[in-house]
Design brief:
DHBP synthase, 6 helices, 11 strands, 26% helix
């Protein structure tokens, strides 16, 4: 049965988020608010939790999962980033963007894309999620919270609890999120002198990035 944590989006109580972080540390899956839509998250170095995340979401190992990082310095631990890529990332983070980058050796092989050895990375700006990442002390593995068989993400924490309360360890309710997904940008071509590729236009604007 999922524990339900109702928090203020701008000033979430640390006491409640510590409880949610403890559930994640024990291998639980949580539904959390982001600066785009709600997401399912689990800790990074837990194969069973990652398998559960994929099962709940209804995706296989070819589906890109995303690492939610606190900042760029943390992101750089999990991806190979050159100077040109870093300048673009600095312009866009934190914010509603997901970047596809070449995975570093710090990313467990089972979590990177099996054919391309890439990983999705994101630095969110949602204050509740940032506070949870700080308390957890490491990136969280994430995927957009789209129920199996559906095409649109859920945006209401109480509806999420009602639908998934027997599959999740926690639901963090910080109010409704934006309904638009992140903008997804593949930065791996930049490593070969080519331009980034916009894979999905979402909430993140392209003009500020020069794309």
């Amino acid at each position: 049965m999922a524990q339900f944590f109702e928090v203020h989006p701008e000033n979430p109580p640390a006491r409640l988020l510590k409880q949610a972080a403890a559930l994640l540390a024990r291998g639980g899956i949580a539904a959390v608010p982001t600066d785009s839509s709600y997401a399912l998250v689990c800790q990074l170095d837990d194969k069973a939790a990652a398998d559960s995340l994929r099962r709940i979401r209804g995706v296989d190992d070819k589906h890109h999962l995303t690492l939610l990082c606190r900042d760029l310095s943390e992101l750089a631990n999990y991806a190979r980033v050159d100077n040109k890529q870093f300048r673009l990332l600095k312009t866009a983070t934190p914010g509603p963007y997901t970047f596809i980058l070449e995975a570093s050796k710090e990313v467990p092989r089972r979590l990177s894309h099996p054919s391309r050895k890439t990983i999705g990375l994101r630095v969110p700006e949602h204050k509740t999620l940032q506070a949870l990442l700080e308390l957890h002390g490491a990136p969280l593995l994430a995927t957009t919270l789209i129920p199996r068989g559906e095409t649109e993400p859920l945006n209401d924490a109480r509806a999420i609890r009602e639908l998934m309360e027997h599959e999740l360890a926690a639901v963090i309710d910080a109010g409704a999120c934006h309904h638009a997904p992140t903008t997804v940008i593949d930065l791996t071509p930049m490593g070969h002198g080519d331009e980034p590729v916009v894979m999905r236009q979402g909430r993140g604007e392209l003009a500020p990035l020069g794309l």
